[in-house]
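ok so for the tutorial part 2 we go from a plain amino acid sequence to predicted structure tokens. step 1 is just haveing the sequence, like this:
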Amino acid sequence: MSELIVGKNVVASVHYTGTMPESGEVFDSSEGRDPLTFLVGHGQMIPGFEEEIQGAKIGEKRTFTLTPDKAYGERQDEAMMKIPREEFSALEEESKLEIGMTLVAQMQHGPAPFTVTELTDDEVTADFNHKLAGESLKFAVEIIELRDADAEELSHGHVHGPNGHHH
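step 2 — the prediction. this is what the tokens look like for a chain of 167 residues:
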């Protein structure tokens, strides 16, 4: 049997650390947690992440930097929205709205996180861009485990079982 490598329909478990290339600041890491487990080729990861680990074997380590188009995309001006402040009145009874807060709006397509970027007496400016949109991102990845996805995982498009999705 040939050694399994990262490719479409393979379940990959990886340890990773994501840093900002300029500052070295860590924005996400699996360190101290279970490895991240996902089904390769089914859109669960940002595009460049999967591209960069294609063909990797268990135990292999790769370091790469992704440009915004391969990560969370460029910032979109149309993802900025001004919302009447009275729509936040229930929230403001419990806590104070502050610039930099992340909240979640219930939209037609489901929950949409946004960051409060500006506050006036009448309006809240909401930024629905991903926090890392417009940024280049550096990843250090180690392949921990690889296995073929089973038929149910392939039909559902995600991993089941330990560290994966549970129905």
